[in-house]
Amino acid sequence: MYLYDHYDQAMVDARVAEFRDQTRRRIEGTLSEEKFRPLRLQNGLYLQLHAYMLRVAVPYGTLSGSQMKMLGDIADKYDRGYGHFTTRQNIQYNWIKLEDTPDILADLASVEMHAIQTSGNCIRNISADQYAGATADELIDPRPYAELLRQWSSFHPEFLALPRKFKICVIASDTDRAAMRLHDIGIQIVKNEAGEIGAAFYVGGGMGRTPIIAPLVKAFVPLDELITYSEACLRVYNRYGRRDNKYKARIKILVHELGLEEYSRQVEEEFAHLQTLNIEPPLAELERIKTFFADPAYETGLSDDLDLSNPAFAAWVKNNTAAHKTPGYAIVNISLKPVKVLADGTKEAGIPGDATGEQIRIMADLAKTYSFDELRVTHTQNIVLPHVRKADLFTVWEKLVAAELAEANLDKITDIIACPGLDYCTLANARSIPVAQKIAERMADKAEEIGELKLKISGCINACGHHHAGHIGILGVDRKGLENYQLLLGGCEGADTSLGKIIGPGFDEDGIVGAVEKATQVYLANKEGEERFLDTYRRIGMNPFKEAIYG
Amino acid sequence: MKIITGNDLKSGAVTWWNGAAWSLHVNDAADMGDEAAAVIAAEEAARRVNGAYVIEAEQTADGIRPAHIKERIRALGPTVRLDLSLDPTATPDKVL
């Protein structure tokens, strides 16, 4: 994985020193909150319901063991013993003190991490396929290009005051595991008819109050013009994106209002101009970056055989591991959505995306010992060990079981994305986490029978919980001071991205749990063959679900 | 009643104005009536609080109950982690 050079380290260290001075001046009183607020936000520090919240960037979701260990140590030393992995492949801490923040940033800098550009109207953390570099179904590893985009977008003077925040995703597989087309710019690395590798640009996607699937703006950009074309896309947005209305300021609104043809024309014009300025980073820099993403030293001649005589282990292998490109290896998904069975038989679901400091350190140790010192954070709020020998899977599973990290529920109805919601977030209108927990507890016994069902919950229209893209989506709203939950069906991220549709009037907290259960019953009664929930919904439409839920 | 809340500048902790100083406990909050604006201006100027504002609340047998669920969650802690609440009697029902 990428290692800082002295420029990277010097920039991050300088930012820590700068923020230390800004914090001192705020506490001493020479900086007002009005002036300090944008400075702290540029360093990922929000003020939330209970305390300051610090959002730490995990570039394209990739972490080393020592970085992961530091995240666990920060949870224990500065927070209340846990952290929350987010849908931007980042981590957030909910109980941070302003006076501690410069020290936290210094600790992060010591392991080549920071919180820069995790807030504000700038280019945010670049996201990517969590299986990058490990999966057999990708064209090439997209991470060198994600890293190039990270370097280009970090402190880019032209793009630090955009009309709104800006999110870029890079994948290199037809199996989109990163919700690529729901980003401001989604880049898919593709091969053209001549067999050359390039990038397809999808621009103007996003969720929030106006969900839009990004249209294809350019089918093939040569990789040695990736940055130049990205800059052209951003320049047109920066010039014409609306600054008068924050709800219409995202690039999706500009592309929609200009029309795809006109936006593309303007980008082409800007692209032609930028090509004359020779702004593309030198090829040598890309080649230097690529060396950091070379394959680890895989063993050869390993067997793919597994002893699956332990049923719990077999279930975990079936649900939580994925095919690796190298024989004898597997990709391991660690679910952060536990559903514990208590002594009296009742269920107790965990908080989606939360992990204790100790659990984070255990995952760090597992990565060091069994996964070439590498982990990934997924946008579904889980963790990946990308390169585990199949011969080590049983040992890894046993250690995960001991740490309560072995829930075998990837992409099942209990593997729920949930934003922090009203329990933590100042923007939220309703709580997300308790709804996720109640659904997980109610549906745990049926999860295996139901199969793949992606359920996503947001506590407000900003859609941090990706409810538009859930096979079942739930949106929490405030109805006359009471929490109310709208049910959406039919959303999907990935190669066949679609947006969920609201089924009808909303429900209270218990009502929405019952409505979800009824939706699954309609699916099970109507499924044909190997259909997933989404397939059945697409075939039979909304009405059977509506009749069962409201009838 | 009208009570004042904010976040402690240095720690970010939720605080409540008790008439003379800031408390971590909502039950210490004082009914400030029309005096709130002056208190907020003075306390923010003194950098003892961040983003102070007035909320509606009522005195109940169990203590002071903010009118809106968001403020009750601020007062008692996340409903999903009441083990972190400063109020040992906090329950989800009390928050809701």
Automatic annotation (TrEMBL), chain A:
InterPro entries, sorted: NIR_SIR_4Fe-4S (IPR051329), NiRdtase/SiRdtase_haem-b_fer (IPR005117), Nit/Sulf_reduc_fer-like_dom_sf (IPR036136), NO2/SO3_Rdtase_4Fe4S_dom (IPR006067), NO2/SO3_Rdtase_4Fe4S_sf (IPR045854)
EC number: 1.8.1.2
Species name: Novosphingobium sediminicola
Keywords annotated in UniProt: 4Fe-4S, Heme, Iron, Iron-sulfur, Metal-binding, Oxidoreductase
Domain annotation Nitrite/Sulfite reductase ferredoxin-like: ranges: 52-110, 351-402
Pfam families in the record: NIR_SIR, NIR_SIR_ferr
Sample GO molecular function, one term: metal ion binding
Name of the top EC class for this enzyme: oxidoreductase
Protein name: Sulfite reductase (NADPH) hemoprotein beta-component
Domain Nitrite/sulphite reductase 4Fe-4S, residue spans: 119-273, 412-549
UniProtKB/TrEMBL annotation, chain B:
InterPro entries assigned: DUF2849
A family per Pfam: DUF2849
Domain of life: Bacteria
Official protein name in the record: DUF2849 domain-containing protein
Organism (species): Novosphingobium sediminicola
